[in-house]
Amino acid sequence: HLWNLGEYSPPLFVLGTRLQGITVDAGDLTDAANADLIPITERVFAGGDENLRGFPRRSLGNQGVGYLSFLYLGLELRLIEELPYHLQPFLLWDWGRLGEQRYKVDQADFVSEGFGLRWPSPFGTLRGTIARGRLFNASELRHDYPEQSVYFI
Questions:
Q1: pLDDT tens-digit profile of 105-150?
Q2: Which residues of 30-40 are buried (b: 16+ CB within 10 A; e: fewer)?
Q3: Whole-model pTM?
Q4: What is the DSSP letter of 108?
Q5: What is the rounded CA–CA span in Å between residue 85 and residue 88?
Q6: Phi, psi of 50 (to 5 degrees)
């Protein structure tokens, strides 16, 4: 959802929010004994320019096996129509949790912080971001994920 902060006309700052929750419910296949029978295309992989932008694309995948639950919140604060050529700088912040069971996420927090630039060009919108991925409560995870900076265009 996009929010016009201050309700200026035209807008000065726009806050974009994204909320996403995913769980894989395949009936009897999601119990511990049969979880391996769920196709890999039905499992959850996170990271990239769609969510958790401080982690490489689909890199949060339980060592290639995928997760069964995902909870995500993304915030983006953008400056509108103040720079030449309609350039729109923005700050971003993402938070997410993943889980190996359906309807349940682990206590480890995946957080991305960064900034980007948006350009609504005559031939389509171009976006670039620089974000740093960080982990909190990482001792809850069975796998190590690197904390690093990620760039997307």
A1: 988 999 999 999 999 999 999 999 999 999 998 877 777 788 889 9
A2: beeeebeebee
A3: 0.87
A4: P
A5: 9
A6: -85, -35
